[in-house]
Amino acid sequence: MLLNIPVKPHVLKFLEEKYPEGYTLNERDHIGTIIYTLVRRQANWKHYEKFLNQYIENFHVEVPEKLFFRESCRHLTAFTICKFNSIIEGIMRDQCMYHLFLVQDVVPLKHAIYKWLEFYDIEEGGSFNYRSLAKHFQRFMEAKKNEKRCLNNVAQKSA
Length: 159
Prior knowledge:
The protein is mostly helical. The relative contact order is 0.14. The protein has helices at 9-18, 30-40, 65-70, 78-103, 109-119, 130-158; strands at 2-7, 23-24, 57-62.
């Protein structure tokens, strides 16, 4: 059984990069757990339908017959489509932060952010833009410093 999940173009590019052979639903990874949870949910809030026009691509998920029929993993609503895209965009944002962290000594931040946006064909605007990613990276680095400071404090106390 094939389930087509409408997604934004950059979300599809990210998922196709992560799953070049296609994706079969299972509960052993994050994406599978998310899809499994979302497709079983029966909630359908109508106010989410106004966002559906931005999801112009489809991510194909092979759903085993057992999950499709016995466990009823086939329900996509406007709510679950929006939530799925939000979760994947959150994963993408985290991936971007680690990418920026790894290249920060080699490439200027602005250039690295624009290259990342370009790689996923994301146009400036919306939830992914230079300003929001730069600010998010600044908070990411502050959290890293605080984490390091906490680890040093724990190490000193235990020594």
